[in-house]
Design a protein that fits this description.
alpha/beta; seven-stranded mixed β-sheet; four-stranded parallel β-sheet; binds adenosine-5'-diphosphate; binds 6-O-phosphono-beta-D-fructofuranose
């Protein structure tokens, strides 16, 4: 009987548990023995593997985070440790691994295949949505919904006090969480790393909008686009407007996965297991134009991350700056 291991690595993301559940159940349905690895690549170095059955993944579909736990494992960039991990897997009779994580985890997966000779498939799980080869990563939709709900709350109080506010969101170097939240939550301004911005223009436009009778303004700032305090003090200096800042932080990384993330998790899990059954390795699973796809991990990682420029334009138009 085939034996396959599964691990979650890097930052956790809502939908990882739903994906784990789907991988385990679909694999067992196909007569594969499943092993869960604790704390990502760390668990491979510390022999933390446990046999999973269909019941092991009961009652987790609705939970954020990852019951397998996750970790960052810097040693995994070194050949010696990759070979050690491969030896551990081989000692268990395991020939394949499903990795759920972001781009760093994908690089680890590729090394485990290229250097360690283990078959790997990688499923994108990160709230950042920063993997260019796929339209969506697991956890992104849920994170944006969480940000949107925070924006609703902020709007209530900021508009009651006629205040300007800035909400800083995660995304590492990517602006996807900020852009989608700005559109969904109706923010007036969206500052992201992918598009150059002019603070003089933003400050002047805020001042003009106040003159026209607009009483509150909301800026969504992607964490990778600049320092929130510096930006706000610049706006104050130019336009005399005080901007109240809120940083959402790790709240946006937890929480029950949305319907979209749960369904995506199930579809990606099925493709991952099917690929391993077909003896494929080094494959990254994604979704493009609403179709599940897979491609070589190296090719997937080589694609530069960009932003949806049309959506950025729409965000600008709908915010009625003119
Ligand atoms: P994410 O997967 O969310 O991008 P990280 O970038 O922190 O998160 O990567 C998660 C883990 O993947 C790292 O702690 C490390 O174990 C492994 N990893 C990252 N980059 C590499 C690499 N270049 N080679 C091998 N393993 C890597
Ligand atoms: O990659 C997910 C993410 O939440 C990023 O958006 C953020 O920059 C980073 O992880 C935060 O990492 P940590 O939880 O280690 O502070």
């Amino acid at each position: 009987m085939r034996r396959v291991a599964i691990l979650t690595s890097g930052g956790d993301a809502p939908g990882m548990n739903a994906c784990l559940r789907a991988c385990v159940r679909y694999a067992i349905h196909n007569d594969i023995e499943m092993y869960g690895v604790e704390r990502g690549y760390v668990g491979l170095l510390n022999n933390r593997l446990e046999r999973l059955n269909t019941r092991s993944v009961s009652d987790i579909i609705h939970r954020g985070g990852t019951v397998l736990k996750t970790a960052r494992c810097p040693e995994f960039k070194e050949k010696e440790y990759i070979l050690q991990a491969a030896d551990t897997l081989k000692a268990y009779g395991i020939d394949s691994v499903i990795v759920i994580g972001g781009d760093g985890s994908f690089r680890g997966a590729k090394d485990l295949s290229d250097i360690g000779g283990i078959n790997v498939v990688a499923i994108p799980g990160t709230i950042d949505n920063d993997l260019a080869y796929t339209d969506y990563t697991l956890g992104f939709d849920t994170a944006v919904n969480t940000v949107m709900s925070a924006m609703n709350n902020l709007r209530d109080t900021m508009s009651s006090h006629d205040r300007a506010s800035m909400l800083e969101v995660m995304g590492r170097k990517a602006g996807d969480i900020a852009l989608y939240s700005a559109v969904a939550g109706g923010a007036e301004y969206c500052i992201i790393p992918e598009v150059p911005y002019d603070l003089e223009e933003i400050a002047r436009s805020m001042k003009q909008s106040i003159k026209r009778g607009k009483t509150s303004n909301m800026i969504v700032l992607a964490e990778g686009a600049g320092d929130r305090e510096e930006i706000c003090s610049k706006i104050k200096e130019i336009a005399g407007i005080s901007v109240k800042t809120t940083t959402l932080g790790h709240i946006q990384r937890g929480g029950a996965p949305s319907m979209f993330d749960r369904v995506l998790a199930a579809k990606m899990a099925v493709r991952a297991v099917d690929l391993l059954l077909a003896g494929k390795t080094n494959r990254a699973i994604g979704i493009k134009n609403n179709q599940i796809i897979d491609m070589d991990i190296t090719e997937a990682l080589s694609m530069p991350h960009g932003i949806d420029e049309n959506l950025y334009e729409v965000a600008h138009i709908l915010s009625l700056h003119k």
